[in-house]
Every structure is written in C-alpha cells, then in structure tokens.
C-alpha cells in the first residue's frame, strides 16, 4: 500500500476526501495548515511518513521547492487548469446568476481566464482579476505570498459596490472573506483533475521504483598494472561492496566486476565515492578507469558497463575517470566531476552538527548515512545495522535508541523471523537525514 501525505487546509481535505475510495491501495494522511507558508515546517514530518506528497496547490508546493529537490521525494500539486475555471464559472452562472462584470477573481495565471472566455465565445468584457503568475517564473526564490493583498483586492471592490461576489483560488483567502461576511466562492475542485493528478503521481512513483531496481554493473581497471597486489585490491573492493550492499564477481583479473542496482549507484554521495577512490589511488599508487552500466538484465548491464569502460581512455587525466551507459544506451561522460566539493562541504557540516547534538562520532554517522542511502531508507532491524557497521547488536541498539531520542530514527513496527524467535523491532530514518 502506498502512502500519500496531503499538505493542505482542512477545507481542501474535506473537498477531496470523498474521492479517496477510488484508490483502495492508497492510504491518505493529512498534514493540515491554516496558511500556505506553514507547509515548510510540516514538510519533514510529512516526507518521513509518505511515499508521495500531494500539495493543495502551486503556492504551498513552491514554498517547499528547495526541500523537495533536496529530499528527492515524489511531490505533486493539484494543478489549476481551464477545466477548474470553466466549472467554477458555470456553477456561478447556474446557482448565483452573477454576471462576469460583477465578479472579482484571483487565479494563478490571468491568461487562463481570457482563454476560457475566448473558447466559450464570451464577448470580451472588463473583469476584475488578480493573479500570482510570478510564482511560476522563479519558483526557487518564492519566500512569501501576501494573502492579505488578495483579501484586500476582493474586499475593496466589494465595499466600493463594483462587485457582488468574489471567486478565489486560494483557500486562505476564501476562509477570511467568509469571516468578513463578503459573498465569496472557492473554485470548484474538479474530481477529474484530482484523479488524473493521483494516477500520474502513482505512475511516476512506480516508474522511479522500477528504474531504481535496474541492475548495475561496475567495471574497474587500473591504469598501472597491480601485479602482486591483485588479491589485496580485490579484498579492498569486497569491503567497499559491503558498504554498498553489492557484490564483486569471482574473476581474479581485470576488469573487476561489481554487481549492484541503479538505485544504490544513483544515491551515492559523490564526495563519499570520491574519497573512496582517492583512498584506493593512494594505497595502490595508480588511478583507475571505471565503466558503469545499467540494464533490465544482467547481460544488458554488463554490455553497457563494457561500453562505458571503452570510452574512458578518451580522457588522459591524472585522476580516475568514470563513464556510464544507461538502460537507454546513452553515454554519460566524466561522472561526479562537477559537484564533489559542494557535496563534501554541505554533507560534512550537517554530519558535524548532528554529531555534536547526539554526542556521537562523525565517522559512525557517515557510515549510517551510507547505510540509509544504499537501503533506500527501508525499515531495518538492529541486527542489520550491526552487521553493516561491524558492531554488536547491543551496540547498534544503543545507537538506535540515542538517535530515536533526537528524532533521527523512529520505530515503525515489528517483523516475525521465519525461524522461531521473538519478533524484531523495525526502525526507519526520519527526513532529517536528507542532506
């Protein structure tokens, strides 16, 4: 069962909850706010509890724009389309008998109203309209939408006798206009638009999961022959593979092949990967060429990995070169070359702050961060974490309990082992690890 966290007002929740029965395999959880900017403070909790986030509209979505990009969670919002506007105008005409010239309207994009009027054959007339199209132009810079500007817009027109009713696309504006006693209507929540949004989000989520489960093969060659150090190098690769829950093939000659999944590779911290490579370069006094291949079968992934390795000699760098060929047979050159330093500084700062807060070593927290990444933040037991970190189960439990106290981990359930024994507690990382 998929979980969709809904960030929206109580008004929005009440409008859409009748449609939930159309999605029996989905659990909907509400994270309510009274003002759109409050969703920023709700985001971490909602993301940690959900597979997909659904925002009530574009405004709350763009308030969380940077958090969405940083967390990589599937996030969508109910779009405002011409169907919503047309249904709203039709409803007003049928129930309220209000002429367009007597309306004050706020919409995301003013052109939407003119498009509906033109296609419906409605003669051009002066309409009191206010939009917030600027939100779509630079979404990453949105900091504050002044809801009071829109309330003032509708209120002043009504007080001046120029309008008899306000039609708004903003929940907070509608609630306040109702409180002030100003005749107002909220845009019709289209059932069709809601269904299309949820179906698209579920399809995108499924596609992401399928993509992440593609097989990945990593081919590694040294630029200087390792000679008598081959066994030691293989041993080093085995230790690295343990960290990534991957495995190295038994071949004792180059290229050495590592089998993993696309999801694990794509979630690797570039700075952490670079540090491992530099460690191997220093230890074995050579650089490497690395070819990564994705595929829907092992054979396909191996073929793409060989192709990627073939292109690496194109660069005569004094450092290790990584190329990738994806499942669509597209070549990605010089992987991880442009964002290493940025990732290193931000990751290091966040880890140090966490270490200070929970009184643990940054080294252990880095290992746990990698564990969360390679397991795609699925629920885990203390035994699994202990094996990954080479600790006793009791030590792992102490670490887990300390992180639970600071809201970095949470208890999510229990698992009954296949053999006889007591159920094992299952834990999951919260969204505070998304750095």
UniProtKB/TrEMBL annotation:
Q: Superkingdom of the source?
A: Bacteria
Return the InterPro entries for the record. WH-like_DNA-bd_sf, WH_DNA-bd_sf
Q: Provide the species name.
A: Lysinibacillus irui
Q: What is this protein called?
A: MarR family transcriptional regulator
The record's listing under Gene3D superfamilies reads: Winged helix-like DNA-binding domain superfamily/Winged helix DNA-binding domain
């Amino acid at each position: 069962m998929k979980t969709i966290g809904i960030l929206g007002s109580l008004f929005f929740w009440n409008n859409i909850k009748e449609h939930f029965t159309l999605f029996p395999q989905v659990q909907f959880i509400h994270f309510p706010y009274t003002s759109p900017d409050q969703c920023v403070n709700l985001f971490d909790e909602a993301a940690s509890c959900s597979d997909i986030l659904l925002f009530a509209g574009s405004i709350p979505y763009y308030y969380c724009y940077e958090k969405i990009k940083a967390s990589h969670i599937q996030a969508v919002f109910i779009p405002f389309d011409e169907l919503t506007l047309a249904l709203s105008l039709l409803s007003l005409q049928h129930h309220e008998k209000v002429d367009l010239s007597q309306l004050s309207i706020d919409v995301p994009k003013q052109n939407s109203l003119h498009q509906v009027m033109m296609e419906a054959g409605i003669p051009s007339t002066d309409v009191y309209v206010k939009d917030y199209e600027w939100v779509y132009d630079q979404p990453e810079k949105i900091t504050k939408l002044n809801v009071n500007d829109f309330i003032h817009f509708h209120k002043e027109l009504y007080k001046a006798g120029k309008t008899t009713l306000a039609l708004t696309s903003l929940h907070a504006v509608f609630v306040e206009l109702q409180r002030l006693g100003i005749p107002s209507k909220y845009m019709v929540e289209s059932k069709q638009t809601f269904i299309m949004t949820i179906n698209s989000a579920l399809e995108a989520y499924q596609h992401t999961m399928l993509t992440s489960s593609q097989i990945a093969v990593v081919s590694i060659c040294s630029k200087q022959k390792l000679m008598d150090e081959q066994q030691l190098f293989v041993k080093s690769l085995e230790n690295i593979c343990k960290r990534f829950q991957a495995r190295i093939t038994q071949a004792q000659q180059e290229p050495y092949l590592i089998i993993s999944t696309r999801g694990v590779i794509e979630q690797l911290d570039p700075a952490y990967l670079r540090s491992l490579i530099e460690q191997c370069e220093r230890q074995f006094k050579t650089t490497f060429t690395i070819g990564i291949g994705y595929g829907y079968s092992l054979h396909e992934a191996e073929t793409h990995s060989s192709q990627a390795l073939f292109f690496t000699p194109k660069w005569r760098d004094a450092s290790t070169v990584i190329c990738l060929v994806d499942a669509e047979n597209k070549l990605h050159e010089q992987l991880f070359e442009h964002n290493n330093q940025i990732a290193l500084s931000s990751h290091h700062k966040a880890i140090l702050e966490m270490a200070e807060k929970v009184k643990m070593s940054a080294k252990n927290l880095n290992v746990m961060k990698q564990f969360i990444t390679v397991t795609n933040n699925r629920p885990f037991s203390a035994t699994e974490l202990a094996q990954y970190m080479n600790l006793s189960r009791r030590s792992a439990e102490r670490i887990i309990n300390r992180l639970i106290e600071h809201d970095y981990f949470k208890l999510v359930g229990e698992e009954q082992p296949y053999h006889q024994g007591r159920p094992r507690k299952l834990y999951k990382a919260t969204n505070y690890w998304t750095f």
